[in-house]
Write a structure and sequence with these properties.
homodimer; Arc Repressor Mutant, subunit A; Rossmann fold; 3 domains; three-stranded antiparallel beta sheet; 9 helices; binds nicotinamide-adenine-dinucleotide; DNA-binding
DNA sequence: TACCGCTTGTGAACGCATGCACAAAGTCGG
DNA sequence: CCGACTTTGTGCATGCGTTCACAAGCGGTA
């Protein structure tokens, strides 16, 4: 791989060419897990833990130990064989790879039920994602401070986003308005969008969209309920079930 | 397993043997997309569209047409070659596979900022996921109706969940309380959990957990911002980007 | 210093998902 | 009834991600 080049093996803190190479090669799925590891590690650091093994960390993060090590290997070799990883070191390297060494200003569009919750949420600023702009169309909301920030009119989105250097836009409007809001955000130069509206957004290639779709999540859960019910029905109907993975039978049956 | 009480309940799902076989084999990723197709199709049906081709539907759902056809093939062959799919037919079959022919009662735990938004949200009941129970520890909230449903005390969770046949539990408490709440839900027989708290939940094998982690979503977006910034820096520094085909063409330096 | 036990990092195999390409199967016009 | 055209359903190749298994490397110990 990239490390087989055997070229330079330096260790600088900021952006190193070798890391650029690596960052491009990190699988999307691994990036999501790195964020989880980071949170677990931060929690450990807060509790005074200074070192951790891949086994411990993987347990805490709910993943396979081998997968964790492979994920970490994507960002470099920062462990010590026979010992484990230094928590602080790992935290700083994951933060660097995830681009968390700088703040990312967030704008929330649509200050209704969900928008209010997001604007009031304290978890974002603490993690380097300060909410710096709020937008809505409702005249009654304009100027009203929510979570300490006054709501701006959606028509001012371009000016405000540029002025406050918004890098992430969060869409919490009703579905019909989502695409239009998205287009405006893109026009304002926002290249990252987090969408809560149950709508498939169309965006140019240079814009990254992630969606949080609660209805879909619910339906996936529903699917599993149904599948389970069917399996149970199959068993009771005498149909031989094939792929049942072995698991400890812990009597969970509760009879009221 | 959990809801064996009602014999007839609502419309009992007609379980066809062939579908059982199929449902077990549907890839997880395809299930998530089926939910999206369903929403798009429902929207089309509302607008009076009766037939649709895989090309049209895939465009609207933002996926590859071949992938869409493969996804649909997991649930059976309900299209007409040379014509396309009947919207109504497709809707009903996807609903059946996803287990949406019956209602899934939802309980929300933690009626703070987010819990209020969820309880007030009209999108769930309309899609077969009625919110029937709310829980909190805050004495000031107990008995207060939110979105039409009075908040119950968390200590009554087992009794209330059984009584209202809750099949999906939503956790919207602060992180430290999440695991404890989760355990209580599991004890109450809830086998599907949607978790908003930034915590890795430990559950028995027979419980399905899905998490919605906004911090992780933000950090994934942040990663892409950083990657992009690095790429731009690389280009301006004269480093050749090997982005598109994975072929590093050396010697070609583009200088503005 | 030499050895021992422990944990990392990774090559390699495997399995799942994606996308292509095309035969099969239908419609429609004549 | 036929032949041209359209679109589905799917076998297959490809690529990505996960898991296994183990050599390499490090700290501790005698
Ligand atoms: N509330 C939830 O728990 C929840 C859950 C899942 C999904 N969602 C989705 O999130 C979105 C918001 O939900 P909500 O419950 O907060 O809705 P809401 O109706 O309470 O709030 C929507 C807000 O968007 C504003 N708005 C409408 N058009 C706008 C536009 N063009 N530009 C800017 N602002 C505009 C409205 O004035 C309103 O304040 C919806 O798409 C909903 O489907 C919400
Ligand atoms: N608000 C957001 O936009 C947002 C965004 C992302 C993640 N989250 C996460 O969602 C969760 C809830 O966020 P929030 O902003 O609504 O918090 P909040 O503090 O406003 O509400 C939490 C509620 O949970 C209740 N609670 C505490 N312990 C409980 C227990 N043991 N049993 C039952 N109820 C209990 C509290 O009384 C309170 O009403 C948090 O974990 C947060 O990290 C929230």
């Amino acid at each position: 791989m990239a490390s087989q080049r055997g070229e330079g093996e330096t260790t600088a803190t900021p952006l190193e060419p070798a890391d650029r190479e690596r960052a491009r090669a990190i699988p999307e799925a691994a990036v999501a897990r790195l964020a989880v590891y980071l949170r677990v590690l931060s929690g450990m650091a807060d509790q005074g833990v200074t070192a951790v093994s891949s086994e411990e960390l993987s347990q805490a993060a709910g993943v396979n130990a081998a997968k964790l090590r492979k994920d970490l290997s994507y960002i470099g070799s920062y462990g010590t064989r026979g010992v484990g990883y230094d928590v602080e070191v790992l935290v700083s390297h994951i933060e660097r790879i995830l681009g968390l060494t700088r703040n990312h200003s967030v704008a929330v569009v649509g200050i209704g039920n969900l928008g209010h919750a997001l604007a009031n949420y304290g978890g974002f600023p603490g993690r380097g994602f300060p909410v710096t702009a709020l937008f809505d169309v409702d005249a009654d909301l304009i100027g009203v401070p929510v979570g300490g920030i006054p709501v701006s009119h959606i028509d001012d989105i371009t000016a405000v986003c540029l002025e406050r250097e918004v890098s992430i836009g969060v869409i919490a409007t009703p579905p019909p308005a989502a695409q239009s809001v998205c287009d405006r955000l893109v026009s304002a130069g926002v290249q990252c969008i987090l969408n809560f509206a149950p709508v498939v957004l169309q965006v140019p290639d240079n814009v990254e969209v992630r969606k949080v779709d609660l209805a879909v999540e619910m339906q996936i859960l529903s699917f599993h309920v149904a599948r389970r019910a069917d399996e149970a029905a199959s068993v009771s109907a005498g149909i031989v079930s094939a792929g049942n993975n072995g698991l400890g039978v812990d009597g969970m049956v509760i009879r009221p």
